[in-house]
Design brief:
By secondary structure, the protein is α/β, with parallel strands linked by helices. It has one domain: Alpha/Beta hydrolase fold, catalytic domain (Rossmann fold, 3-Layer(aba) Sandwich). It is 48% helix and 13% strand. The chain is built from twelve helices and six strands. It has a six-stranded parallel β-sheet, with helices on both faces. Helix 1 links the parallel strand 1 and strand 2. The chain is globular.
Length: 258
């Protein structure tokens, strides 16, 4: 039996292929991990993006069969995937045991969201829909290997508007307050979406913040080894908590023997 079940949720415009390095590492540590494609991304290019459909895809990946029902279930999301993972934890607190929310340290509201939507709309009007700019930015800020992983599953050129609008209707602070699982917030030191990380940290009942030195917004790609270590640390903590829950009550056993 694997140590844990991990579901990885990618960022906007990319796909499950961005998690290749993590999937390889988790397999080596006896962790059952799967990376999903959100609506309108990767193998689901062309599908309409919706929060409800994203929730259904995550749920199916977290709970594939009874064969691994007794192992901790950890949901890991980055950027768009992080906001969706937080929302899932609020809607379905009984479906998972832990949450890693990476690169989503800003509440998607107001002028910040409006500015991002405006930039996205301008990029979408480029002759190639922004594919050239996307690939150039990946090559500039990522290693050759990571840049290849980002585009390997295709680039979701048409999903920015609908996805940003949908996420703008979420309330991650309220969602975190409803979540009943431990939360690891993981942000790169140079992430431009860290403005409200402390606010979100305080909103969760059981949370901790990990800042990865030298990493940017795409923390799992710019520092894949460090990011993987954080997730494996979360698995170890969930293992420890599960062992404590399974431990017999020694005092009760002693009293019964007396």
């Amino acid at each position: 039996m694997p140590r844990a079940r991990i579901v990885l949720v990618h960022g906007i415009r990319t796909s499950a292929t961005m998690w290749r390095r993590q999937l390889e590492a988790f397999a080596a540590h006896d962790v059952d991990a799967v990376a999903i494609d959100l609506p309108g991304h990767g193998s689901r290019l062309g599908d309409e993006f919706s929060i409800d459909e994203a929730m259904s895809i995550i749920d199916a990946a977290l709970n594939p069969s009874r064969a691994i029902a007794d192992v901790p279930r950890l949901l890991v999301g980055l950027s768009l995937g992080g906001y969706l993972a937080i929302e899932f934890a609020a809607r379905h607190p009984d479906r998972l045991d832990g949450l890693v929310a990476a690169a989503c340290g800003t509440i998607p509201r107001g002028s910040a969201l409006a500015a991002y939507q405006s930039i996205a709309a301008s990029i979408a009007r480029l002759p190639d829909g922004g594919r050239g700019l996307n690939d150039a930015m990946a090559a500039l800020f990522l290693s050759r290997e990571s840049a290849r992983d980002v585009v390997a599953g295709g680039v979701a050129l048409d999903v920015m508007g609908p996805a940003l609008a949908a996420v703008g209707r979420l309330d991650p602070r309220a969602a975190l307050a409803r979540a009943r699982v431990p939360v690891w917030f993981v942000n790169g030191r140079y992430d431009h979406f860290r403005f409200q990380e402390r606010t979100l940290l305080r909103a969760a009942r059981d949370s901790r913040l990990v800042i990865v030195p030298g990493a940017t917004h795409l923390v799992s790609l710019t520092r894949p080894v460090d990011f993987t270590a954080v997730v494996l640390g979360a698995v170890a903590e969930l293992d420890r908590r599960a062992a404590v829950r399974r431990r017999p009550d020694v005092r009760r056993i002693g009293a019964a023997r007396a």
